[in-house]
Each structure stands twice: as C-alpha cells, then as structure tokens.
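Hi everyone, sorry if this is the wrong subforum. Our group has a chain we'd like a structural model of before ordering constructs, and none of us has done structure prediction before. Sequence below.
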Amino acid sequence: MSRKIWAFPGEFRRGLRKGVRLFTIDPLRNRWYGEGYERLSRYKKKTMIDGRKEMENESGSERMIGRYVVSGVVGKGSMGIIFKGRDPYIKRTVAIKTAVPEESLSESQAQIYREQFFTEAQAAGALVHPNIVAVYDAGLENSICYIAMEFVDGNNLTNYCAKNKLLPFEKVIGITGKICEALDFAHQQGIIHRDIKPANIMLTRAGTVKVTDFGVAKLPKTEDCHTMGIIGSPGYMAPEALQHGQATQQSDLFSLGVTVYELLTGENPFASETMVEMIHKVLYKEPELISTLNPGVPEIISSVVMKSIAKDPINRYQGTMEFLFHLKTALRETRYRAEGDRVDDRINYMKSIIFFNEFREDELAEVLRIGTWFHYKKGSVIVKEDETDTTFFVVILGRVQVEREGKVLAVIDRGSCFGEMAAFGKERRRTASIVATEDCVLIKIDALIIDHLSKDLQIRFYKQFLHTLINRLDSARKNT
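Answer:
Right subforum, don't worry. Here is the predicted structure as tokens:
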C-alpha cells in the first residue's frame, strides 16, 4: 500500500467533535482534502489547459485516443478531462473520459491511480440499463487511461438546483423515479454508487435521465476500505458513510434524498461555509423541512423525502424502490397525478424484482388484472397458521417473516413469493403464519386462476414456483 497521510488538515481535525473518526487516506484516492486534493486539482487544471492547447495545435489533423477520433473538449471529470469523439467503425458519437498519472508518481502509485480510474468501467460496464450511462470500451494508450462511453446530449441536474430554476415537483418526482430504478438495478448487481448528487445525474434534451460517474463505486464482493477516508461528496454522504465508511443501498438512498431535497428547495440541507460545519450538520443537525423552504411542495411529499435522509439508516426506507413507492403514493394523494397512470407505475415495481424479471409487459398487465395489491403495516399478520386458502403472494416491497407457534422460521425478502404450494393443489392448509417485519407491499393472486391463463404465462409462474422450492430445499439442506 502506498504512503498514508491524514485526510484532513490540522484545522479540520481540531474542529471535529468527539466520536467522529479521523481518517487516513491514500493521497491518490482522496478527492477532497490535503495533499491528494491539491495534487489532483493541479493536475486537472493542467490537463484541461494542455488538452485544449493540444486540440488547437492539431486543428488541421485528426487526434486519436485508441480507435476514437477526438473532436473537442466537453468538460472535466473527477480525475481528468472528457472529450467528445467518434467511433469511426460504427459511426457513433462517444464521450471519452481520460486520465494520466503524474510523472512524479512511483509505478505502484500510478498503478493504484489507474485501478481507481478503471473502477468506473468495471461498475458501469456491468450495468445495461436505460437510465445508466453505457460504457462501450476502456483502454490504456501510452500513459493515457481512457473510457469510451455513451455521449449524453444534455445537462446535469445542478442546472435545476437554483431557486429561480426549480422544476415543478411533479417533474422532480418523475426524474427521481428513473434514478430509483437505475440505482435499484445497480444494487441488485451488488454495486453501490457512493457519489449520487445533482452533478452526476444527466437530463438529456429529450428528457431521459442518466446516472453517471461510477468512479468511486463499491463493486460486488469488495470490502469497505476504512483507510480510504471520505469517498464521495461530503454534503451528500450519509452519516454512517462519513463516520465509518459504510457503503450500502441505504447510503445511496440518503444521497438521493439530499439530491431530491436540493431539487425541490434550491438548497443543500447541509450547506455550510466550512467543511467542518458541513460534516457536523450531516451528523447531528436536522435539516429544515422542505415544505417550509418551498411552500409549493405538499407536506406529504416533504415528509417522504425527509424520511429518506434520516440520520439513522433504520429510520430510512429500506431501498430506492420503497422510497419511490411512497413518493408516488404521496403524489397521487395530492391529486396531481392521473389515476390512469397507476397501472404503469405498478408494472415498473414488478419489473424491478426477481420473480417477474422474465415476464413481458403485457403479461404483467394481466397479472395486475388477476391479482390484488395490498399495503401491510409493520406487524400485520398476512397469513394465519392452519387457515385453508388457495392464494399465494409475491413481495413487491419490504420484508416478511415465517412463524410457526411463535417461532421465526425464515425471512422472505422483496422479490420472493410465499403460499406457492396452493398452485399444486385445489386447497392448502397454511402450515405457518406470515407476518410483516416492516411496512410492505404485496400482490395476492388466486392460484386456481393460473390454469386459465395463456400457456406462456403459466410456464413463467410455474418456473418461478420451482425456483422458489429448489432454493428453499437447498437452504434447508445447508442448515441441517
């Protein structure tokens, strides 16, 4: 491991309250403080100037990065400059993010720098989703690291965070929905973004939302590195991420909640004159209510967003899709949303879970027709032991547990089903009770209807039932 330095200058360390850990950090990966930040800032400034000069000097000839023809500089990223380019083979416009390790770095330090840069290619490259910027290619040419990705013709959301440029709250919730779906997809692949903020969300001219910059993402099967210090943007980071370096779905949710707060009010809830004060606010001070700063936002919507930025993860929603569900419910209650849109909303929730992954959209519409949508409060008994019934349930949001004679036997997560044995007989006695361990949403379906559905839809249901039974048998075998 390369040399460690304190992540914070002396003034910052002295200003921290007791209980806030002092981080050490590899200077190459520190995005915010100390020597690493100054080094990175000097490098970015220098490369931006050098990049433009080089473009001007070579105006008469084509400049290449890898196989891509460069046509101009479009901006800067967290580690270097971003060019607009063209793939000459498939005639596609691309964005080319580049970075060059400083000459003063040792080979081991340069290697760490390159590994960090290519984290984005590994993370975003594994995510094929309409609301995540696609990565096409990555490579190393001479000393230049580059990633070729989808070129987004539009602006990031910082353009809509000024008080005189705020979008209608209905539009903000629509944008938030697409971010939630993108993050939920990433989370299901085991990837945590770690740097959600307005600058990392693009809105195309056509109105499409794109999540960008997975440069500090936590990849599957990797541990949180406590020597890495602050990874992300402090004003958008969850308290547990600042204090303990924890990167979870709920820390991404917190960052998204802060982003939505800013889009609705034109203010960051933890805005401060100094970094010490900002981090103190994130850890200890409750933000002002959204509806107070912007009376045009209904209180019910304000309450949902405020819950997403609760200090303790236990008090937040469990994931982005649960957050979205409550946002959409609140929006409908304000009567600003047409009732006809509800079916499409529910189909989106269903498409995001494992059970319905292989179902076509028309088949999901049919499932909604034959099923009933239920919202259960924490502690509700959904199914009672010894009851006789022919229905089964799929958990859309939340979590339930299986109990027999007061003893907890198992926990059933979002995307799983229970009661599926009813599909293999006319009537089944419930062998256990099902209790909601948190607020949850389920769809209830009469299993006897399945045999009257189309053959394709029958096959999809029975395939999922068999997967469920196999997984439970495998789990039972491992526990014996």
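For your construct planning: The longest helix spans residues 455-479. The radius of gyration is 25 Å.
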